[in-house]
Every structure is written in structure tokens, then in C-alpha cells.
Amino acid sequence: MSLYLRFLEEFEGAGLTTVSSDELAARGGTTSAQVRKDLSFFGSFGKRGLGYQVSELTQNMRRILGLERDWRVIIVGVGKIGAALAQYEGFQQRGFHVIGLYDSDPAKIGREIYHLPVRAIESLAEDNRARPVDIAVIAVPASAAQRVVDQVVASGISGIMSFAPIQLHVPSDVTLNTVNMAMELERLSYALSNRE
Amino acid sequence: MSLYLRFLEEFEGAGLTTVSSDELAARGGTTSAQVRKDLSFFGSFGKRGLGYQVSELTQNMRRILGLERDWRVIIVGVGKIGAALAQYEGFQQRGFHVIGLYDSDPAKIGREIYHLPVRAIESLAEDNRARPVDIAVIAVPASAAQRVVDQVVASGISGIMSFAPIQLHVPSDVTLNTVNMAMELERLSYALSNRE
DNA sequence: TCTATCTTGTGAATGAATTCACAAGCCGCG
DNA sequence: CGCGGCTTGTGAATTCATTCACAAGATAGA
User: Fold this and answer.
1) Which of A3, A18, A77, B111 could in theory staple to A139 by disulfide, Cβ–Cβ 3.0 to 4.6 A?
2) Do the beta carbons of residue B101 and residue B115 sit within 8 Å?
3) Sign of CA dihedral A177, A182, A187, A191
């Protein structure tokens, strides 16, 4: 789904005004039937004989993906990865606004990183009441991750994006998405080892 | 597959010497039949009535995933993300050794980051002949990514791990794995928007 | 040795996802 | 207005993945 949006933006950038399922399929390395099935799950966006209006479909995809609104994001763990994420423009561009940084290291608390003060994780619950957070990005070491996630959940935040290389457990009303770089490397290792 | 290895290491750490497909399934939130099917694809590692020998299965998984050997890795693009990856211990721990850093910014070339000199991307082909590289990690802006990938491929490197938020194209004899954080955020956005 | 109890490995059955194939609709042109 | 050329949307057919269910070992204890 995200992929289709990406392709649509490409096509839009190229000045195309309409696009067919065939073109989208070719771009994504799939079949036109697949594209139509995927899209039709959410509604009927195309015109027979013509294809899809790029601008209209783009807008619909944005709405479906929840990208029309802004999301308030905090980053927990201001190590190298957390700091890198804090200043990653890609976030802001798509409406993900970093409004807070948290850490447990007393040496870091109080310092400013990219115009945002680093706060103690203990103040998260209170901060969240004052200014609710939509998504917490977890960028702490594996050994601390589950504890931090528990604190985040206890603070009332219900969207979590984790970069910790372990499987985390959250209540069913909390949405968790994990990017596990260790596993991605292993996937590559497997692919490289097993090509004839 | 990677997941199983992770669980096995947990069980090993807990001192267990054998494990059943049921236990692995419980740990991973799947079914025992699924676990057995997955494993049996690669061979017959268990003993009926007993289960799997943890150490033996761990070793087999490592072999299957190609983790018994060391991998020589370079990082192309020493921005915030590239620098963060360069010093990420998780890489070294699993046998992924960062042996070189590359960038196109003259201000960065020649500087040392975590004991490794940053070199010009132009010297990559030559360096690779002197000391072959297994995997190139791409951590450059989206706008430069395809060009950099082409250079990497032209240098003779055939394993690529990309963090650029775009779809890259490589010849079929090159293995590419992409971690697209923009898409992961969108996935989370979608999940958050569409829960009742 | 024989029996009771486990747990694997794997065909068979079920369920899910993809692909096929085509009627229904839209546009442009004569 | 009617016809021909396109492309969507969607049931039907097919392929792929998961789950079921059980025979084939393996062990432990009597």
C-alpha cells in the first residue's frame, strides 16, 4: 500500500495525470490483477477504459494510510540511532513531528539535541497528559527495551515503533511495529549464502 | 527463521538443552505444526519423542543463515544514520565487520570515524579489488541512492543493504535488501488510523 | 522385553492469496 | 448514435500456505 503511494508520487512528479493498473504493476513488479484487487479492497477509485486519476488516487491512499493528519512522535533513547532519527527529515516531511526526546542517562538529561531538550523517562507520563503523544519510537539497547516499552504503555501511549533487536510484548490495544536490523542482516546473509 | 535462532539463543541462555516444537511455537506465537514444517524444509533436526537439541539446532540455523562465516561490510554515506550504523555493536557481534566507510562529501573524506577513515566513493572499485567486500550498506539520501548503488554494483559488490527510502534497481545477480523507515512509519500510521 | 508416553516428520484437508478471464462501463471517432 | 478499443472490478479457478491428524520412532519404567 505504501508502495503504491510512493509510485503514485513518482508518476505525479513525472507529470502523469492518469495511470493504469498495468503501469502500477510494472513499476512494482507485480500483476495488474493484484493491483486492482489491492485497491478495490478500499473502494472503487478507477474509471473503466481510462485507469486511475493520479491525484485522486494519491489523495485516497493518503487518507487510507492516515497521512492526512499530523502525528506527534517522541524518541526514547538518544544514543546514536535515536539522535540520527531525531534529525531525520523524512519524518517531518510525512507529518511525523518529533516533539520530545527521552533518555535514562543522567548525563544526557537536560541537554538539547537539535533544538529539543532531552527529558527523563520518568516524566513521560506527566508530559503525555499535558500534550498527548501518538507514537513513541524506541531506540534503546535490547536489554532495556521491554522495560522502556512497559513505561511507554503505562504512560498511555498506544503507538510504538521499535528499533530494538528483540521481540517486544504489548497489550492488544497498543500497536507495535518493529524494525529489527539484526534480522534484516541475517536475511541478507541467508540470501547471499544460498544463491547457487 | 532468524526468529527461531533468536528464540534458541534465549533458551540456550536459560540453560535448556532440548526444546520441543510446541515450546518454540509458544515463544513465537505460532503453531507447532508450523515450526516443524519450517524446520523440516531444511532437514530433519529433531528426535521423535524428545524434541530438538538446542545446541545442535542452533548450529544448524547458523549454518543455514550463513552466520558461521564473517562478512566484510562497508558503509556508504557517513551522515547521521551511516555514522550510527558504523558503531552499532550488533553488527560486529553477528560477524558483520565494518571494514570501510565511504562518502562523497569532500569535507568528510579523510576524516576518521570510530577508527575508520572515510574514503571517496570513487576509490571503491580499486579498494574492492584489494580487499573484497561482501556487503555494502547504503545510507545516503534518496536522491543519491540509485547512483551510489550503480557505483557499488559496478565495483563488483553483490550484496546490498539499503536504508534509502526508495525502491532501488539492481541486476539479478546482486542481492538487495531494503529497510524503508518511511514505509514502516506509514504502516504504523495505517494501523493506528484503522483500529476501531 | 513390552508397554505407555512423548514428539517429530509428513501426507491429506482445509483455508488464504493470487491469477485468470470476462462482463460492464467509459471514451473517442465516424 | 453506434461501434471499437481500453481498462476496471470481480466472480471462478488455481496456486500457495497453514493446519490437522496420525504413523513412525524414541525413551523410560516395569
Assistant:
1) A77
2) no
3) positive
A86-143 confidence digits (pLDDT tens):
998 888 889 999 999 999 999 999 999 989 999 999 999 999 999 999 999 999 999 9
Say if CB B76 and CB B137 are below 8 A apart. yes
Q: Identify the helix (H) or strand (E) that includes residue A35.
A: helix A32-40
Picking from A94, A90, A87, the residue whose alpha carbon sits closest to that of residue A69 is A94
- B66 to A1: CB separation less than 8 angstroms, yes or no: no
Tell me which protein residue sits closest to nucleotide C6, measuring alpha carbon to C1'.
B49
- Total-model pTM: 0.94
Q: Which three cell numbers stand for residue A49?
A: 477504459
How far, in Å, CA of B195 to CA of B48, rounded?
A: 43
Distance CA B71, CA B97 (A): 6
pLDDT at A38: 98
Alpha carbons within 13 angstroms on the beta-carbon side of residue A74 total 29
Q: Do residues B133 and B99 make contact, with C-beta atoms less than 8 angstroms apart? A: yes
- Burial pattern B59-90, b for ≥16 Cβ within 10 A else e, equals ebbbebbbbeeebbbbbbbbbbbbbbbbbbeb
Is the distance from CB of B4 to CB of B28 less than 8 angstroms?
yes
SS3 A71: strand
Cβ–Cβ contact B171 with A under 8 A: no
Residue-by-residue DSSP string for B157-179: --EEEE-SSS-----TTSEEEE-
Residue of A nearest to B85 (CA): A81
What is the per-residue pLDDT for A90?
83
Please give the mean pLDDT across all residues of chain A.
96
State the amino acid at position A4 in one-letter form. Y
